Amino acid sequence: MVSSSNVSTPSPSFSEYSFPSHRLRALEDGSKTPLVLVACGSFSPITHMHLRMFEMAVDHVKQGMSEFEVVGGYMSPVSDRYNKAGLASAAHRVRMCELACDETSDWLMVDPWEAIQPEYQPTAVVLDHIAHEINHNLGGIPYPPPPPPPANRLTVPPTATSTPRKPARVMLLGGSDLLQTMSQPGVWSQSDLNHILTTHGLFIIERSGSDISDALAPLKEWSDAMGKNWMENIHVVRQLIANDISSTRIRQFLRQGMSVQYLLPNVVIEYIRERGLYREVEGFRESRASSMPPLRREAVDRAVRERRVVVEVDGAEGNGDKDGEEETRGRKT
């Protein structure tokens, strides 16, 4: 078990950044396309549901997407520039994610690149960054070469070559709230949606008892108008066991001195306790306005001040990264 005791919390910096690849797996089946899953969000704090989302996506791939093989998974915490209510510093959120992955998984990793950026980064840029690191800088994912021909066949003696590699497909992973924000006009840019849903792809963990058809309809309409087929790259994962753990609720519990045992990895609970995170009582409610990127948020804030609109609390009652999924809303414009 990983312990958070005496674990320093260095501030992320460009000079010390290196892309984490130590847990990327080689392809077992060289005929398949290597698949890397990426979840973007606040992770303030990371919960068991954030981790569970990856496992559900892997099962979905194994059971119904035989052309792919999952070789890695990344969490990408948003930077401090996001300015959301209740957001711990990027250094704390990155470290909590690292501790959680180290304690609970043998294949999940945390990429701090987005967290150390001085400006807000759209998710499309984050996905491109990870794809570039894996496919360009690392050269792709290694895979086993085909078996040698039978000994009785005349063949040209093989030459020494490096391990063969394949480019990985990088896909975004999120909950049903993320899909709903994508279907809201003006929240995500059309160019980013097209890039994500054409070049990369999307896994959505469906909330138990919910119907996402209303959220899919606008996306299909927009993709049809562009002559695209986004639907083939949206993969809906059924949540067979309901899990409504919310980072927003976790923060509320912590501020009220309530137990969060069994809701978060133990090492994360210990880290939060030792550093006194999420204890302060905030003087404002966490709202949709605070979940938007800086420029759009400023416009909404002006409208709120002028009493032209009333922004109600969302509650982040999606599934998966309730916090992370709600906070991806508007990060893409």
Automatic annotation (TrEMBL):
InterPro entries: Cyt_trans-like, Euk_NMN_adenylyltrnsfrase, NadD/NMNAT, NMNAT_euk, Rossmann-like_a/b/a_fold. One of its GO terms (biological process) is NAD+ biosynthetic process. It catalyses: beta-nicotinamide D-ribonucleotide + ATP + H(+) = diphosphate + NAD(+); nicotinate beta-D-ribonucleotide + ATP + H(+) = deamido-NAD(+) + diphosphate. GO terms for molecular function: ATP binding; nicotinamide-nucleotide adenylyltransferase activity; nicotinate-nucleotide adenylyltransferase activity. Residues 38-252 form the Cytidyltransferase-like domain. It holds the Pfam family CTP_transf_like. The keyword Zinc-finger does not apply. Keywords: ATP-binding, NAD, Nucleotide-binding, Nucleotidyltransferase, Pyridine nucleotide biosynthesis, Transferase. Residues 319-333 have a biased composition (Basic and acidic residues). This is Nicotinamide-nucleotide adenylyltransferase. It comes from Choiromyces venosus 120613-1.
